[in-house]
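Posting here for the record, re: zinc ion.
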Amino acid sequence: MAEHYVRQPRSVMLVLHDVAPQTWEDYRPFVEAVDALGDIPITWLVVPDFHKHDRVDAAPAFQRLMHSRLARGDELVLHGYFHCDDSPAPRTPQAFFMRRIYTWEGEFYTLDQRQALQRLEAGIEVFRHNDWPLHGFVAPAWLMSEGTRQALRQLPLDYTSDAQHLYRLPDFHAIDAPGIVWSARSAVRRGLSKIISDHREAHLHNAATIRLGLHPVDMRHEFSRRYWLQTLTRLLENGREPVTKFTWLQHQPLIRSAA
Ligand SMILES: [Zn+2]
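Prediction output follows.
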């Protein structure tokens, strides 16, 4: 059977990770520069209590900021609850690698279904009482346990994502959404990130969409901050339309598997 596609313009999604009251200061100059470019919707991955000492609910100025961003057409996404991995210490070499060397931020990597459900519901509640619409959840470091996946199937959410896909919920139908992300902690990593990202952007030239995934640490170095602003500008000049993740998802064809 022939698939019928409505041709969508190519797009770019600007996604800010680890958004919390204390990281807003990192992002502020960058966001002001993006706002100055025109009407560019941003997707903000918000952490309700970043590292257990930065509660959104204790930060009225931040809440007002998020409201004003929503009014501009931006999207807020739930990004973990504490963001850090606070489960009991890893006991196997594989778990040690994933949870201490690869990242300390895999909050949803070890949770069972009950724990994941509890934490997701607590996050959803923060959005609810702030009157923030919520469609998506992104696990910190994109690490999801099977329990987390089961919990997500039970909740009123539209999608989750990893580094290269969006997944419709509750069925986890995968949609390609390639991304560029930096590891900006050291000068060597920033240098490498630039080389890899330039290569990746060329490779993605014809991709339907490109997700730009920014982190607060990227904003603390002129080299990486400039890279992101120039890349965004270049992609827009190449005719890509800036969209939020949920807006983009809503424009993807619903393909049902022929089961
Ligand atoms: Zn994160």
